[in-house]
Write a structure and sequence with these properties.
The complex is a heterodimer of chains A (about 325) and B (about 650).
Chain A (H helix, E strand, L loop, with lengths): L1 H13 L11 E6 L9 H8 L2 H4 L2 E5 L8 H6 L5 E5 H9 L4 E6 L6 E6 L14 E4 L6 H9 L5 E4 L5 H5 L4 E5 L3 H6 L8 E5 L10 E6 H6 L1 H20 L1 H14 L6 H15 L13 H13 L9 H4 L3 H6 L1
Parallel strand pairs in A: 1-2, 1-3, 6-7
Antiparallel strand pairs in A: 3-10, 4-10, 5-8, 5-9
Helix pairs in contact in A: 1-10, 2-10, 2-11, 5-13, 10-11, 11-12
Chain B lengths: L6 H71 L4 H14 L5 E6 L13 E6 L2 E6 L11 H9 L3 E2 L3 E2 L7 E13 L2 E13 H9 L8 E5 L5 E3 L11 H8 L2 H11 L4 E6 L6 E9 L4 E8 H4 L1 H47 L15 H46 L14 E8 L7 E9 L2 E9 L3 H21 L3 H13 L8 E9 L4 E7 L5 E5 L5 E5 L19 E4 L5 E5 L1 H4 L10 H11 L5 H16 L8 E8 L5
Classes of the chains: A alpha/beta (about 325), B alpha+beta (about 650).
């Protein structure tokens, strides 16, 4: 895997535009959708390793967090580039925000449901009539589609920021991100073999999450800038996967500055899962590209739930940066 | 390899080795058992310490629990307006020093039908009591654990430690008690009463636990989160399971699971921050299922043993060295005289008995050995001196005896043929002396022209006396023969002479014959000697060997009055007479058999055609092959005269 990553990295260096360093740096800003953590390691690493500068971008990474909505930042033009879930972005576009996807970082959905084996939940049907903790906003789209798909009657309990309600037995099933809450549960003393997991990916509900978005007019004004940002970011990710401990140092530094819980073990887990989500080993997909099939799947579910009125054409929503820039 | 080493080396080697082994064995046992004892003591101490701290915390938690429980009970059982509620809540915070803040959080529209969220909260801040309504602003209290968990579980619960962002803005834990109202016969949750404790207090209690120099206590929450620890950066940032994952230590994870399950135990543990090996006792705080652990650094626990062991090892090594020195000394005191004696023995072996022996310093075995050695040396010296003397005198005697023997032999006629001109007879005689000087003799001489006197004799006894007696007898015989020609008379006279002054009572057997060389007639007399053998030639080459008939006269020299008769026998030509001493027939072989008359006769028959000399030589050879190497005790003497006829 290491070797493969190094190769990919080399490939990236090979397609570097000649004389990139001589181009005058263009100012740009980016905001991730949450507080600093390994979920955004690629951006922090690309910044700290000078990849953005190398591609001619003088980037400012804004600090994300629970009260910093990236779509707000995008719509109010407080940030040029944002990290958003695909489902969120499609809804915003449906609501008239002219944003486009210029890079789909995560290929897989990390959202999942977790139950304790001790509560005898082994299949989706076992959840019928149970208390299930569900997050709000876009986190509930997949679970609700899942419940509908399996015709489950669920006692939905709003889930807060912790998994303690689940750990104490207040709910039978909890929502979790594979790279975050799942590990929190493991490191609260529950063993993996004591848990039943339901990845929405495995149940035909793969909503690829984090992607890079830009307002359409921003992109039109300077497509090269957008593509430079995407390339540098992806290079940052590959570097992070090839040098995980160095990447963790960088991420932990950002966390400390944001006064977050700088837990290396947890961030290590998160970075490793990001690799699984960004570079799935069992699937042929191009790094950073939104798969049309995933796009259509998410569109169908959102349309069916009445969350969007029309499914925009793939090509109008998504710009495959590398090809179009060259062409 | 050891076989060639000296005693000193072996002693040092084995004593030091066995001493060292014994020492190691004792040391090992001592170390092992003292560790066990210490571990036992540590376990007791750790248990007591952990339990006392846990009880201390538990007591506070229980006291805190009572307050919201009472308020919840009051809210369930009496109606109270806003003012009353505020007053109660405020006094609750004011009057309970352990309580940092308290709130009554209502379900949506639970307090006032017009008010969606209402949660009055009083808390301490810089010595005064502050108020805030948690229902105002963006803080959604009913999404927080302290609200959700007791509500969903329908029972009071302690929250995990958390940084409050609603009003307290400090690290706290909240005890939440749900309260209910009856609505249509159903119990319906109205809200949650909470009491917060500031964990700074808890951290102080736990961190005040002093264990030896560097030991400490720490507290983990029900989720394994480190709540108190000497390393501040671990607090709220790390769980015991995260530590286990970082260390890839599944055992630590197991310990963590036991801790959060409310078990207690005594386990080896590595300090979370410094990784120092420790003993850890963990015990639960029953109220909130948190777990308190007390760590005893192993190196400090065993510091005393380690120091003691260092001293014991040093003493042991010193002891072994001392033992070696003592052994060297002892071995030296043994081997030095032994080595000196080895040298002395070598010197003695080459004949020097005057060598100096090492001085006897101790009356031990070595001293006794030296003493015995000295005695042996002296005895040997004395013995050799005596032996030298004896040998010298013996050699002298032997040489004298040899001379005597030579003299004795020299008086016997040895030249053959003795009378070269005489053809009437052939005479030969031989004597084979025994090892000792014996008393056999023979003699022959002409008395006149045709009378040959021949004598054979055997003196009783051995040695010089016999030799002397033989010499006397021979001389007497020759002297008497010159006076008389009658053998009987000669013997009678010799007997008379020998009897005079014969104090030693010696005697001699004698056969004397006088051959008339013309006629062949032999006059003879016998003094106790064994009869000679006659070899008679018949016609046609036939012959016979027969003893000469003799009267047995008494041995000569025994009785003065003895008279000896003269007898006569005629030799025909070719007849022969064979005289001999009993040394011939009594020659003995290895089996103790005698040569005997029979063998002698057979030999004579075999040799009858031979000359006298060849016959005697043949018989000598016969005796020699019969007796082989056996030394003969008697002289072997033979004489043979063959008559050829009267000359003309």
């Amino acid at each position: 895997m290491r070797i493969l990553l190094s190769l990919l990295f080399m490939l990236f260096l090979a397609v570097l535009p000649a004389g990139a360093a001589e181009i005058a740096l263009k100012k740009a800003s980016f905001i991730p959708q949450w507080s600093p953590q390994a979920q955004f390691a690629g951006y922090y690493v690309a910044y700290e390793k000078g990849f953005y500068k190398k591609y001619g971008v003088d980037l400012t990474i804004l600090q994300g967090g629970p009260n910093q909505s990236p779509t707000d930042f995008l719509e109010r033009r407080k940030a040029d580039f944002v990290s958003l879930w695909l489902s969120t972005a499609m809804q915003r576009r449906s609501h008239g925000v002219k944003l486009i996807n210029i890079g789909q970082v995560m290929q897989r959905s990390a959202l999942m449901l977790i139950a304790k084996k001790s509560s005898n939940i082994k299949t989706p049907q076992d959840m019928n009539g149970k208390k299930v903790g569900i997050w709000g906003a876009d986190f509930q789209i997949q679970p609700r589609a899942f419940f509908k798909k399996y015709n489950l009657h669920i006692n939905v309990i709003p889930q807060s920021f912790s998994v303690n309600l689940f750990l104490r037995g207040g709910v039978d099933v909890a929502s979790a991100m594979w790279y975050n809450e799942y590990h929190t549960i493991i490191n609260s003393g529950l063993n993996e073999d004591e848990l039943t997991t339901f990845f929405f990916y495995d149940y035909g509900l793969n909503f690829p999450e984090d992607g890079i978005y830009v307002l359409e007019d921003t992109y039109r004004k300077d497509p090269a800038l957008s593509c430079a940002f995407v390339r540098a970011s992806l290079e940052g990710w590959l570097y992070a996967f090839a040098h995980p401990e160095e990447a963790l140092d960088i991420v932990l530094n950002y966390i400390s500055r944001a006064k977050g819980p700088a837990n290396r073990v947890h961030q290590r887990w998160m970075l490793a899962r990001m690799k699984d989500l960004i570079l799935p080993v069992d699937e042929v997909s191009t790094l950073g590209n939104l798969q049309p099939s995933d796009y259509e799947g998410v569109g169908r579910e959102l349309f069916a739930s009445g969350l969007i009125r029309i499914i925009p054409a793939y090509n109008s929503f998504c710009v495959r940066c590398d090809n179009r820039a060259e062409n | 390899m050891l076989r060639t080493k000296g005693i000193a080396f072996k002693l040092i080697f084995f004593y030091t080795l066995s001493g060292g082994l014994i020492f190691l064995l004792i040391f090992g046992f001592n170390y092992y058992f003292s560790r066990i004892i210490i571990e036992k003591n540590v376990e007791d101490n750790a248990r007591n310490l952990a339990l006392s701290k846990a009880n201390q915390i538990e007591a506070v938690l229980r006291a805190v629990q009572k307050v919201p429980e009472n308020l919840a009970y009051y809210l369930e059982n009496s109606s109270c307006d806003n003012n009353e509620l505020m007053r109660l809540l405020r006094s609750l915070v004011q009057n309970n020093p352990e309580i940092y803040g308290a709130a009554v959080a209502f379900e949506p529209y639970g307090f006032d039908k017009k008010l969606l969220h209402f949660a009055p909260y009083f808390f301490k801040s810089d010595g005064s009591i502050e108020f805030t309504d948690l229902g105002k602003g963006s803080y959604r209290y009913n999404a927080w654990d302290w609200y959700q968990i007791p509500k969903e579980l329908n029972m009071p619960a302690w929250s995990e430690p958390y940084y409050d962002e609603g009003g307290g803005y400090t690290l706290m834990a909240t005890y939440s008690v749900p309260f209910y109202k009856q609505s249509g016969g159903k119990k319906q949750c109205r809200g949650i009463v909470t009491a917060d404790i500031n964990l700074a207090w808890l951290q102080e209690v736990v961190s005040s636990t002093k264990v030896l120099q560097t030991g400490y206590a720490f507290l983990i929450s029900k989720n394994g989160i480190i709540v108190t620890h000497p390393s501040k950066e671990l607090i709220m940032n790390e769980t015991i399971f995260g530590v286990a994952e970082a260390r890839d230590d599944p055992q630590l994870r197991d310990i963590g699971r036991k801790m959060i399950r409310g078990e207690s135990g005594f386990v080896p543990f590595r300090s979370i921050d410094s990784e120092k090996p420790c003993w850890m006792y963990y015990a639960p705080i029953p109220s909130n299922n948190w777990s308190l652990a007390v760590l005893f650094p192993r190196d400090e626990l065993v510091a005393d043993i380690t120091r003691l062991n260092g001293i014991v090892i040093a003493l042991g090594i010193a002891g072994l060295l001392l033992l070696s020195v003592a052994i060297v000394f002892i071995a030296h005191s043994i081997t030095t005289p032994l080595r000196a004696m080895v040298q002395a023995t070598k010197t003695i072996a080459i004949g020097n008995l005057d060598v100096e022996l090492p001085p006897v310093r101790f009356e031990d075995e070595v001293g006794k050995l030296t003493e015995a050695f000295r005695y042996m040396k002296e005895s040997l010296k004395e013995y050799i001196r005596a032996l030298t003397e004896t040998t010298a005198s013996k050699e002298r005697i032997e040489s004298e005896l040899k001379i005597a023997r030579d003299i004795q032999m020299s008086i016997l006629p040895k030249v053959f043929p003795p009378f070269p001109g005489r053809t009437e007879f052939d005479i030969y005689a031989a004597i084979e002396p025994a090892r000792e000087v014996g008393g056999d003799f023979y003699d022959f001489f002409f008395i006149d022209d045709n009378h040959l006197c021949f004598v054979i004799g055997d003196v009783s006894g051995k040695g010089v006396p016999a030799a002397l007696f033989m010499a006397v007898t021979k001389t007497l015989m020759k002297a008497k023969t010159s006076q008389d020609a009658d053998p009987g008379m000669i013997l009678t006279k010799v007997n008379k002479d020998l009897n005079q002054g014969n104090e030693a009572c010696m005697f001699v057997t004698i056969f004397i014959g006088i051959l008339n060389t013309t006629t062949g007639e032999i006059l003879y007399a016998n003094g106790g000697h064994n009869p000679p053998l006659m070899i008679r030639s018949g016609d046609n080459l036939s012959f016979a060997v027969e003893p000469l008939p003799v009267s047995h006269g008494l041995v000569v020299g025994a009785m003065e009055e003895s008279i000896y008769q003269t007898e006569t026998v005629i030799l025909k030509p070719r007849d022969a007479i064979f005289v001999y001493t009993d040394g011939v027939t009594e020659a003995m072989n290895e089996q103790g058999e005698l040569f005997s008359d029979d063998r002698l006769k057979k030999q004579l028959i075999k040799l009858h055609r031979k000359s006298a000399q060849e016959t005697i030589a043949g018989i000598m050879k016969g005796i020699a092959s019969f007796a082989r190497e056996v030394p003969q005790s008697d002289d072997i003497t033979m004489m043979m005269i063959r008559f050829h006829g009267g000359g003309e």
